[in-house]
Amino acid sequence: MSQTRTLALRRAGVVTALAAAGLLAAAGVASAHVTVHPESYPKGTTDGVLTFRVPNEEDSAATTKVQVYLPTDHPLLGVLVSPHDGWTAKVTDTKLKTPVKTDDGTITDAVSEITWTGGRIGAGQYEDFDVAFGQLPDTTGRLALKTLQTYSDGKVVRWIEEAEPGDEEPENPAPVLKLTASDGTSAAAPTSSASSDTDTTARGLGVGGLVVGVLGLAAAAFAVVRGGGGRGRDRASAWRGSQGEG
């Protein structure tokens, strides 16, 4: 094998490995954040569910406490917590600085914090925590739902950072619920479980397709290099035949 061909094959292999590793790493980072599902609801939506997905990022510790902080300047009204096997939820109410007027009367307090304890999320696992609400605010376009994740070794990851529009995603982003223009109805958006599962599947298929594409390009490069070497040998054989060599 010539030195030129050997170098070409090595370069193709390095490019393929780096590209595939980069794609897989990007997918892993994206999926490691605490997120809320669905990612958006119409403003003022009534009777819906938010699902907080909490993955474990540590190899040697389990997640043992999850704290979600709900904004009180744009409060979620009528919050209820779904029972979760192995976990105990503590709900904290706060008096609102500005009461909210509704068709059922004036609301003066709202849930500001939900803390889950007693369970464990092991390495390579995640948990979904469901929170029902009676009504979303219609006075803002987004809600930052800051979350603290505590591990069994005492480490606390603060998912509280907010990015300005156009900025890159911060290292520890807060889960954000986007509130879109109201469609004039009170029907809730699709449940979060189906939405999140679909999103996750789509992302997985997309990353898998990109990896296959990269590997295909590498295979093509290998074939071109190999084919070039084969044509060189064929030309040499033809030349020897014209000289009468056996």
Structural overview:
The structure is a single chain. The chain has 246 residues and is of the alpha+beta class. The chain folds into two domains: 89 residues; 150 residues, Immunoglobulin-like. It is built from two helices and twelve strands; from the N terminus they run αββββββββββββα. A hairpin with a 4-residue loop joins β10 and β11. The two termini are 23 Å apart.
Low-confidence stretches: 6-30, 187-215, 217-225, 228-243
Label the structural class: alpha+beta
Q: What is the terminal-to-terminal distance?
A: 23 Å
Strand line-up of the largest beta sheet:
6-7-4-10-11
CATH architecture classification of the largest domain: Sandwich
If helices are DSSP runs of H or I spanning 4 or more residues, what is the number of helices? 2
Q: How much is the average pLDDT?
A: 76
Order of helices and strands: HEEEEEEEEEEEEH
CATH homologous superfamily descriptor of the largest domain: Uncharacterised protein YcnI-like PF07987, DUF1775
CATH T-level fold name of the largest domain:
Immunoglobulin-like
Number of domains: 2
Radius of gyration from CA coordinates:
27 Å
Major β-sheet profile? 5 strands, antiparallel
Helix content: 25-40%
- Strand portion: 25-35%
Q: What is the tally of beta strands?
A: 12
The gross shape turns out to be globular
**In CATH's first tier, which class of the largest domain applies?**
Mainly Beta
